[in-house]
């Protein structure tokens, strides 16, 4: 199911940790989603056949380039490696971490339905927000700023 007009941004109501799930990565070693690297993260759940997913991909690629302090994981839902590689090459898209989730276990863990879904995670891996449907570049930027404000070290008191 693709979300074409329904857009929803919800705050996490519980401190949902990352899933204990290791996924195949294109051109890289497998990625353990439960392992964080100390950076906030943006996870996008997508599929090549999904028109809203295809439309938002350039904005996600631009955000990844603009925010190296944020980890971006693009997790394809239910498709094979050849289809994903062909799509990325055909569209001229490049991301640091494209993962394959043929069983769609990530969707089940985060209790999402359909694609696209964009998840914003705190630096410790807990879910902060979930956006269902195509996401605008301005929303990506606003949520990244919010994540970074939570991840910033507390100011030191002056003595």
Write a concise keyword list for the protein shown above.
alpha+beta; Glutaredoxin; 30% helix; disordered N terminus; 159 residues; 26% strand; 4 helices; eight-stranded mixed β-sheet
Structural description of this entry:
It comes from Brevundimonas mediterranea. One of its GO terms (biological process) is cytochrome complex assembly. Residues 10-149 form the Thioredoxin domain. One of its GO terms (molecular function) is disulfide oxidoreductase activity. InterPro entries: Redoxin, Thioredoxin-like_sf, Thioredoxin_CS, Thioredoxin_domain, Thioredoxin_ResA/DsbE_sf. It is a single chain. This protein is of the alpha+beta class. The protein has a domain at 39-131: 3-Layer(aba) Sandwich (Glutaredoxin), CATH 3.40.30. The chain is 30% helix and 26% strand. The chain has helices spanning 51-66, 81-91, 105-110, 137-151, and strands at 8-11, 22-25, 28-32, 41-46, 71-77, 98-101, 117-121, 127-132. An eight-stranded mixed beta sheet has the order 1-8-7-4-5-6-2-3. The radius of gyration is 15 Å and the shape is globular. It starts with 7 loop residues before the first strand and ends in an 8-residue tail after the last helix. The model is unreliable at 1-9 (pLDDT under 50).
